Amino acid sequence: MITRLLVKNFQKHEKIDIELDPQITAIIGPSDIGKSSILRALRWVCLNKPQGSGFIRNGSEEAKVKVKIDNKTIARRKGKTNAYKIGTQKELVSFATGIPQPVQDITNLDEVNFQGQLDPPFWFDLSPPELARQLNELAGLSFIDKVTSYLATQLRSNRSEHKVVTSRLEEIEEGLEQTKFVEEAEKEIKEVEQKQRDLADIKEEGTELAQALAELRRKYRSFYNLRTASEEAGKVVELASTMIAVSERCTKLGYIVDRIRETELIIDSELPDLSGITKKFQRTMGVMDKVDYLRPIIERIKSLRQEQAEYQITIERIANILEVDSGGVCPACKRPL
Question: For 260-267, which contacts have Cβ atoms below 8 Å and span 24 or more sequence positions?
């Protein structure tokens, strides 16, 4: 039961304090004196209506209304701060267009409990559905209507959502059908990546093989140089053997030439003695035959000496090659050069 109402800076009222009768309280006065403002102030506390701040008295920063219900005080103020307060408890804020639940639990009032000055007689002009609704409100059966209305709203919302989701699902399925190639493309991409890795491995192996081939070619060139040097050395050995044989033949030839000269001296010294001319002539002819025989041998010796000089140059070149490629060691006998 409401027993007291205190209003400050609300519309026309700077301050008014009203004690309410337990049975009936009548507010009487001239027009435009603020009778309806008192009812609006009570409605503002209990229902948070009207909204906004147009009801704050001109020249004031905030409006305040206190109502005492069942020995509990509910205070409401609106200015820089919009808040409720129950007794000495902490202020209640951030309640949007409704009222805090603790306040509603105390007031237990709704629109059906208020009637304006110009409102038609209570319930007489209501339609049957609206009358039934308000009767349900009074009897506490409005909860059923609210649940039914809520369920109908949720059903419509769920149907709409189901329709949207179904449509979206169909679009997604159609999109998935159109994107089946992605899986195949992914497989192909994986195969390409694997082939790229295989190609990288092959390139790496190719690089290693190229390096090994280059090393093999280098060793082959070194071996070929050694082989060439070995062949040249064989030729030199063969040439040396030939030169030794030629040298021996030259020694013999020199000996023969000396004998020819001695024979010529003997012929010159014995020329006056005609008794042995025929014999000596025959001996001389034999010597001349030997000279004719030895002449090509002498020419061959000259040719061999020229070849000996050329082979000597070749031997020096081979020795230089062997010293560079084999580190100064003979590849055949492993002796220092």
Answer: 260/287, 260/290, 260/291, 263/287
Q: Can you say how many angstroms the Cα of residue 133 is from the centroid of all Cα atoms in its chain?
A: 65
Q: Are 56 and 63 in contact (CB under 8 A)?
A: yes
Amino acid, single-letter form, for residue 309: A
Are 8 and 67 spatial neighbours (Cβ–Cβ below 8 Å)?
Answer: no
Q: Among 215, 224, 226, which Cα is nearest to 334's?
A: 226
Distance, in Å, from the CA atom of 91 to the CA atom of 79, rounded to the nearest integer, reads 14
- Token representation of residue 41: 């102030």
**Given strand 2-10, what is the order of strands in its sheet?**
13-19, 2-10, 63-69, 72-78, 82-86
Evaluate whether 62 touches 52 at the Cβ level (below 8 Å): no
Q: What is the DSSP letter of 26?
A: -
**Is residue 95 a contact partner of residue 45, using CB atoms and an 8 Å limit?**
no
Q: How far apart are CA 154 and CA 148, in angstroms?
A: 10
CB 83 within 8 A of CB 108: no
Better pLDDT: 277 or 54: 54
Cα–Cα distance, 332 to 237 (Å, whole number)? 14
Asked whether the bond before 272 is cis by omega within 30 degrees of 0, the reply is no
- Amino acid 197 reads R
3 state DSSP class of 86: strand
- Strands, DSSP E only, in 94-141? none
Q: Give the three-class secondary structure for 281.
A: helix
pLDDT tens digits for 221-260?
A: 776 666 666 666 666 667 667 767 766 776 777 777 677 7
CB-neighbour burial class of residue 198 (10 A; exposed 0-12, middle 13-18, buried 19+): exposed
Run of H or E including 124: none
pTM: 0.41
Decide: 50 and 82 in contact? Cβ < 8 Å: no
Tokens for 58?
């001109």
